[in-house]
Design a protein that fits this description.
The chain is α+β, with helices and mostly antiparallel strands. It has a domain of about 90 residues: Rossmann fold (3-Layer(aba) Sandwich). About 40% of the residues lie in helices and about 20% in strands. The strands form three sheets. The protein has a two-stranded parallel sheet. A two-stranded antiparallel sheet has the order 3-4. Strands 5-6 form a two-stranded antiparallel ribbon. Helix 3 links the parallel strand 1 and strand 2. Helix 1 packs across helix 2. The protein is elongated. The termini are far apart.
Length: about 160
């Protein structure tokens, strides 16, 4: 289905290669013989992402692409989005995990009640005060010991 936009065009000659590459990049090549409805939630999410990648679009919009994924695949998906951006693809990712956004995004936009609150570099935008105000829960923001990216940690009593 990801190659449907290219049906009947010269680019359709690249279908098999584009599909194989997308399945490999999303770690689902081993699921090629399975029916979509037989896949787990995480496998379906990765198959849907593969469908997007197979389109080879210059703009990619991903809405909660890490939902239902285990930790490894969450990181894989975000690294893949980051690589697409490095390759010149415009990538917009909607995620609720602020630490994931901070680790991989060039810019983050924080929304509340359907309105943009602020946007900018993760280290500038994601402050304890702002996150507490928008999400209504106290947090601590600490630098990732490896990358320095902000890690948002809820304060638990």
């Amino acid at each position: 289905m990801g190659r449907a936009p290219w049906q009947g065009t010269p680019q359709s000659d690249e279908d098999d290669a584009a599909i194989a590459d997308a399945m490999e990049r999303t770690d689902i090549a081993h699921l090629a013989d399975r029916v979509f409805t037989s896949l787990s939630g995480g496998e379906r999410a990765r198959a849907s992402l593969a469908r997007v990648l197979a389109q080879q679009a210059t703009i990619v919009l991903l809405d909660e692409p890490t939902a239902a994924l285990d930790l490894r695949h969450q990181e894989d998906v975000m690294r893949l989005a980051r690589q697409l951006a490095r390759d010149g693809v415009a990538v917009v990712v909607v995620v609720h995990d602020l630490s994931l956004a901070a680790a991989y995004a060039d810019r983050v936009a924080v929304m509340s009640k359907g309105r943009l609150v602020t946007a900018g570099a993760p280290g500038e935008v994601l402050t304890e005060q702002l996150v507490e105000e928008v999400y209504g829960t106290p947090v601590r923001i600490v630098p990732d010991p490896t990358t320095g990216a902000p890690l948002i940690v809820p304060v638990r009593s």
